[in-house]
Write a structure and sequence with these properties.
It is built from nine helices and six strands, in the order αβαβαβαββαααβαα. It is α/β, with parallel strands linked by helices and about 200 residues long. The chain has a single domain, classed as Spore Coat Polysaccharide Biosynthesis Protein SpsA, Chain A, CATH 3.90.550.10. The strands form two sheets. The chain has a four-stranded mixed β-sheet with strand order 3-5-4-6. A two-stranded parallel ribbon has the order 1-2. Strand 1, helix 2 and strand 2 form a beta-alpha-beta unit. The chain is globular and about 45 Å long.
Length: about 200
């Protein structure tokens, strides 16, 4: 799954750096080893305080802004990242997302944040879910931030392309097995067409 995500990110035209942020848990050692073998930057931090893990990455790398990508999204269409970053650069926004109002299939979430905005929000975080899900705080208080949420004309959030269970993994494997070109060439529409033929 990690390889699929990273290959898609490598074919994204707007990213300057890729950092895999995982935990210090023994179970995540294979992730760190994969990154070492394939020359990807890897930061290891807290298992439960994911927001602090992100803060540590930003402390080291000094990014002005960053794209958050979830590890359960091996079929994320990198073109959504390009769209998000384009909106972020062109507009006066602190956050560009498709997750505040969810119309995209699960596994197609993209969030772009200003680093300074994240740092401010991190200082204000108190609830457990805010530390576990790094953008929860911002969506709780949308009036305090310049957020742009883009949506689909039709709500497809009932479709699950993320991988959290063995059943999800079977679906992911079935979709990939029907691909005749490199997977990163398949857009979200292409993947949805394959998914639809399997139902």
């Amino acid at each position: 799954m990690l390889q699929y995500i990273l290959e898609r990110l490598m074919h994204c035209s707007c990213l300057n750096n890729i950092v895999v942020a995982t935990s210090m848990e023994y179970s995540d050692n294979p992730i760190a080893e994969y990154c070492r073998l394939h020359d990807f930057a890897c930061h290891r931090g807290s298992l439960t305080n994911v927001s602090f893990r992100f803060k540590e990455v930003l402390d080291v790398n000094k990014f002005n802004g960053f794209v958050r990508v979830n590890g359960d999204s091996p079929l994320l269409d990198q073109r959504l990242i390009e769209k998000s970053v384009g909106i972020f650069i062109a507009g006066d926004f602190e956050i560009v997302t498709n997750a505040q109002e969810r119309t995209y299939p699960k596994g197609q979430t993209v969030e772009v944040l200003r680093t300074d905005t994240f740092r401010y929000g991190y200082k204000m975080m108190r609830a457990e879910d805010e530390f576990e899900h790094i953008t929860s705080y911002f969506y709780k208080y949308p009036e305090d931030f310049k957020i742009h949420n883009f949506v689909l004309p039709q709500n497809l959030n009932h479709i699950k392309l993320s991988v959290d269970t063995p059943e999800d993994m079977n679906m992911f494997a079935a979709i990939v097995s029907r691909m005749e070109r490199p997977h990163w060439e398949y857009t979200l529409d292409d993947i949805l067409e394959i998914h639809g033929r399997m139902l």
